[in-house]
């Protein structure tokens, strides 16, 4: 076989020999380790599966519909019998060999028909479903019937909002509840002696007698139900609620849990399941109750955060307004002796909610102690603080969605779960009320178009014309021209956005409805407001490939906005981008879902199996930086983890935290106050548990804020925490509507501190910059620029200097904060000559290593290298 595999001329026979060689090798290999005889691999009997799994259904008209398997079995039987007969009548070898081959093929296709090129086909050219096909895939036996089954005691219905529910409740339609809890009701009916038999009890339940509702109320006490919304992307997609009976046919859902389910009320449906046994009921009410799942297990931030109307209402109520000539704010500047007095004044219409007042209340001072103090604040904020637990102190902030998230987090840390749930319900009510009373609607008049827009656009068009002229003169290449045009428009666009935002913010002291919606984080973004009142801007061009090649962005921007209206060509360009969004959404969601599934597959056996594995290893953790901007500070990265070594303050040598202890918020604050750059923490990557991982290496369970407990399936939580946002992001694409978000490229380094400039490892050559001035051009690729403190030499900041950049500061020069030190052309990859001389090219042949191209617009010929 080896010989034929090596020397065979025909490709097909060679492949066959290789295949057989692989099988033979596998047998020889196995024979050494276990007793494994090749003849055992030959099938003598073909097992036939029971007839229930391959049914034969008579159709009307005397025909039969049959399972594909019956066909496949039939072929095997026919060919087997034919072979037997041929052997008996001693047919010639050629016929026998052909018949044997056909029998082998029939058996192959019975086992796995989809693998073969010439699969056995039914009418209509459809491949028959073989045994393997019955098992594999989402519709196969395993995933459809063994891992997931349809369950009794479940129902589904459309969801509507239930604003007066408590956080742990949901509204369950009466008829649905009666059907779901039927067995419980029947048992109670028999227990109470109302009926004797199950059959008569069923009749009473179906008739919906008055006594049924009494019993149902009783049964539901302390019996939670599970609500689930498909797709269940993370563990918060199924939560338990205490049902409340309601009229109607729709399930009522609490508005604060929508984020976790990713639900909205545009016709979404949800499924209800009833936990039956006492253990299941206990688990549902202890672990799965909505009010116990306030934090998101992916990142420990609260997930039950007010959104939309509630945020807008709370923002409106806590936003202050000063009196002007035309508008007097009632009660401005008055002083109150307590929160209660303010509330009375507001209720008696003696005080506007937006008035700036002074009030005496409990505030947290610098040392985090509660003290009484008179502060200036807005009357509406006092209303909000009536709901805040006293332990937190007075919150004197304009409430946006981000702020609310921080406040909820703080309340949770200071008071615990039950009180937080109560607080959430209170602010939900206040938010809805204020939004309703504020009457915050928006009209076209709220959208402002800045006067400067026309001037800026004209200026940009002039700049673009200049760039085009340079291009036509042949001073710059097509790529440079494209990049510069895009850059001009991006810059103008952000300028217009800035002026627009400024206008909205100043108008009516920021009480512009659209601005309030955006600023509070209730709805909309800068991008969207820019498209309404600024200019629609540059649009993305749908690209076949995934990589961002040149030509991703259409270089003619849309100058109009939605208030002015788009003209035909602009409308046409817009459609292009919007459709791309829709197509992407459809394509990518499936990929993202499959990613989650694969992640769960690899990580599902990572479980916390012991409290401490006793390892001495860990990973060293730094703050995440991009150049000098801190992306994620050290404190956030080490919070809730375990220290490997003692953490010691380098200046005072005092112990901050002993080895093996958890790093808490208090500790991270102390670490931030010192000059510690990195901390070595225990990590799952270095855990030495035999099976799974240990609690100390994992650290804090983000969903509870305490150390992780034994038995927590942290692998699955990790997989879901990556998969869920991934799927959400693909669904979010189409909301922006295809505008290109292109950030103007960084092309300089500025001093972030005042101090003295030091260069390291910098080679420079005197050159001439674009304006014709003399300057130093950097030749090295590893140079750095540092700003040091005058006198002490302490380094404030150090940055990498790119190749080919111009130096604007001298070694040892004193600079101000914000002064430009280095700049470069971001659109060109340059090769610089270090010496004067004559250029020689090596191995340049036309048509092989380079080709000549003529630029249509300028008529210039340029040589383009085609292979390096």
Characterization of the model:
26% of the residues are buried. The protein has 7 domains: 1-41, no CATH class; 43-148; 154-292, Barwin-like endoglucanases (Beta Barrel); 309-438, Enzyme I, Chain A, domain 2, CATH 1.10.274; 444-581, Topoisomerase I, Chain A, domain 4 (Orthogonal Bundle); 608-712, no CATH class; 748-823, Beta Barrel (OB fold (Dihydrolipoamide Acetyltransferase, E2P)), CATH 2.40.50. The strands form 11 sheets. The protein has a 6-stranded mixed β-sheet. The longest helix has 36 residues, at 568-603. It is an alpha+beta fold and 868 residues long. The two termini are 44 Å apart. The radius of gyration is 37 Å and the shape is globular.
In short:
The chain is α+β, with helices and mostly antiparallel strands and 868 residues long.
Q: Kindly report the average pLDDT value.
A: 84
Tell me the CATH topology of the largest domain. Barwin-like endoglucanases
For the record, what CATH class of the largest domain applies?
Mainly Beta
Under the CATH scheme, the architecture of the largest domain is Beta Barrel
Q: What topology, given as strand order, has the largest sheet?
A: 4-6-5-8-3-7
Radius of gyration: 37 Å
Residue stretches low in confidence (pLDDT < 50, at least 5 long) are 545-551, 734-738
Largest sheet: 6 strands, mixed
Domains, number? 7
